[in-house]
Design goal:
two-stranded antiparallel sheet; single chain; about 150 residues
């Protein structure tokens, strides 16, 4: 988060809501979040641009291979920050606001980043590192007030 408006207007705003103890809406079809740290994207772009072996026009998937359900974000933040009490549920995306079962395509979707790792020696940050940096920036830059233990 580089600007306060990003704590509201982007998907990081969903994490901000979770940190504030407010459940967010389930993604359509129960879709999980597939994550990559923006710092890893920047590093990969530099490595690819500077690589003497990667052919121009080559395409790579930049993903950390982490796949997480939005309702698990709150539990992960609570683990990283024991003083926080984040939302650990979601509201439904189905008809009438009901929770929907994850569409089978999301259960079968698996990301692979072995090609980019092999091409330029890329190592992706852990989910916890990315989540911690996101929450820290939401609080320090975005002005988010986390719900805390009373």
């Amino acid at each position: 988060v580089l600007s306060a408006h990003q704590a509201v207007e982007t998907w990081q705003g969903k994490i901000a809501s979770i940190v504030q103890g407010k459940p967010v809406a389930q993604e359509a079809g129960g879709r999980p979040w597939m994550i990559v740290d923006v710092r890893d994207v920047a590093e990969a772009e530099i490595r690819l641009a500077e690589s003497p072996t990667v052919q121009s026009g080559s395409r790579f998937l930049l993903a950390s291979m982490d796949k997480i359900a939005p309702e698990a974000i709150g539990s992960s933040v609570n683990h990283l920050y024991p003083q926080y009490r984040c939302a650990t549920t979601v509201t439904g995306s189905g008809k009438g606001g009901t929770l929907v079962r994850s569409h089978p395509i999301w259960l079968r979707a698996h990301l692979r980043n072995d090609r980019i790792r092999s091409a330029v020696g890329m190592q992706f940050r852990s989910f916890d590192d990315t989540l911690r940096a996101t929450v820290d920036s939401l609080v320090s830059v975005g002005g988010v007030q986390p719900r805390t233990v009373k």
